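Summary of Year 1 activities. Much of the first year was spent building the evaluation harness for sequence design. The harness presents a backbone, in tokenized form, and records the residue chosen at every position. We chose the following record to illustrate the format because it has been used consistently in internal testing since the harness was completed.
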């Protein structure tokens, strides 16, 4: 099985194009139904969705591709409705943030690589216009961790077909 952490690590250093577009927004726009609103949009969520989509069964594990998940609060609400959000940090979980003073809802997302004490190492898109592995405090700005990795089918599942 492909590990999401390897997929995320391969994205480190990617950045916005000079015109403000990203490969992640363009990818999201190209998914059915085709749109033209994500290529220049804030891209933390679209980069996380892109990485999850690279895992066979990854999108199914998050309940399918919902373009509205590019709006972080929508994604958090949907994962919460599925009973998948807790305050327990585990590698590969989706991390939701609410930056204080920037709005009433979640407004940033990443994929957790690891926790070390009170620090989180998180893969994040749109961090200073780049995709980076960021070291952040595990503080009140973290609003939840969404489990999805354990729902990815494995080769041991009777119905799984290796791509």
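For this record, the design step produced the sequence shown next.
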């Amino acid at each position: 099985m492909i590990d999401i952490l390897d997929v995320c690590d391969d994205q480190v250093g990617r950045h916005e194009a000079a015109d403000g577009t990203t490969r992640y927004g363009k990818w999201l726009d190209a998914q059915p139904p085709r749109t033209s609103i994500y290529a220049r949009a804030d891209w933390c969520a679209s980069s996380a969705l892109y990485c999850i989509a690279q895992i066979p069964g990854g999108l199914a594990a998050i309940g399918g591709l919902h373009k509205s998940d590019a709006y972080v609060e929508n994604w958090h609400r949907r994962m919460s409705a599925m009973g998948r959000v807790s305050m327990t940090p585990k590698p590969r979980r989706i991390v939701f943030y609410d930056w204080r003073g920037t709005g009433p809802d979640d407004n940033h997302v990443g994929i957790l690589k690891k926790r070390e004490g009170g620090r989180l190492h998180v893969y994040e898109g749109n961090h200073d216009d780049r995709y980076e592995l960021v070291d952040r405090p595990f503080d009140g700005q973290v609003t939840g961790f969404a489990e999805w990795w354990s729902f990815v089918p494995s080769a041991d599942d009777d119905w799984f077909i290796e791509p």
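The chain has five helices and six strands. Quantitative recovery figures across the full test set are reported in Table 2.
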